[in-house]
Amino acid sequence: MPKLGLHGARGGFSLVQSRSATTPVALRLFSVLNRPPPNYPGHVPLTTIERGALAVGSALGSIINLRRADLIAALGEATATPYFVYRLRDAMLSDPTGRRILRDRPRLTSKTLHMPYLRTLPENSVGREYARWLDREGVSPDTRDSVKYIDDEECAYVMQRYRECHDFYHALTGLPVFMEGELALKALEFLNTLLPMTGLSLFAFIKMKPAEKERFLSIYFPWAVRNGLGSKELINVYWEEVLEKDVNELRAELHIEQPPDLRQIRRMIRQQKKREKEQQQTSS
To answer: Partners and quaternary state (predicted)?
Structure first.
């Protein structure tokens, strides 16, 4: 087991894993005026006070404006250490496929996934469903922020991998990107990954309309709990190797049940309201 040590000067402290350590965390003391060098390109070492301020500020900001993906990303990194991202990394190390992902360190981008090829795959394949979901939602795999506030370089990759896999979870479940779909998926992710940000995101529930809250509590939250607790560790899916696989077969392997089509439900409700309005106008 690696030794824990104190390094640095006066001021706040940050938890980081020494580069020679393979598990937990070494303590490094430093001040904002005497910041240590980065552990990897783009890394920003933070003191404990800075990390706490980042967590609180990004949490409040992301609740006020749910479209601030940068704040959600910062919240995820600020709250992932010192325990949760290490737990996720250990889950990968305990799985043969997870270990290969950590060794290979693939990235999920439009170039590495070859999007034109995915659109030519057979119907109901994982890759075709993923490409279809991206096209329908107007989303790109290239919009994920790079991790910079996690001190351990390997754990930073784990967080980056989780972040880039998120759209595959959307495609696997069929959940759209608007609030109901995002919160349902975040609830599933929280129970599957234990990353605090995914749980904290559920506070956005307070901004839902009454009908959306009722639908979420009656349909999508129970689905998320059932599937989040019963599914395999999704971080260990080597998505690049299952693109040609039948999506229903993969759902069965991962113990993921596809939820009711949220877009279809909302469409039916809109149509029902339209018919009722037309009937009222006709009767009047």
So the answer is: Component of a multi-subunit COQ enzyme complex, composed of at least COQ3, COQ4, COQ5, COQ6, COQ7 and COQ9.
Q: What is the pLDDT of residue 34?
A: 74
Write down the pLDDT at residue 280. 77
Q: Nearest to residue 169, comparing CAs of 78, 99, 233? A: 233
Instruction: Tokens for 86, please give them.
Output: 């290490």
With a cut of 70, say whether residue 164 has pLDDT above it. Answer: yes
On whether the pTM is more than 0.85, the answer is no
SS3 27: strand
**7 has a pLDDT exceeding 90:** no
Say which residues have a Cβ less than 8 Å from residue 11's Cβ, sequence separation at least 6. 29, 30, 31, 32, 33, 34, 47
Q: Which residue reads 């006020």 in tokens? A: 64
| 142 annotated to bind ligand | no
% pLDDT > 70, the chain: 88
Q: How far is CA 57 from its chain centroid?
A: 19
Mean pLDDT rounded to a whole number for the chain: 86
CA distance 280 to 162: 50
167 a known binding residue?
A: yes
For 87-141, the pLDDT digits (tens) are 999 999 999 999 999 999 999 998 899 999 999 999 999 999 999 999 999 989 9
Q: What is the rounded end-to-end Cα distance, in angstroms, of the chain? A: 79
278 is in an annotated binding site: no
Q: Is 180 annotated as a binding residue?
A: no
The crossing angle, in degrees rounded to 10, of helices 179-193 and 262-283 is: 150
Residue 36 DSSP code: P
Taking residue 148's Cβ as centre, other Cβ atoms within 10 Å add up to 19
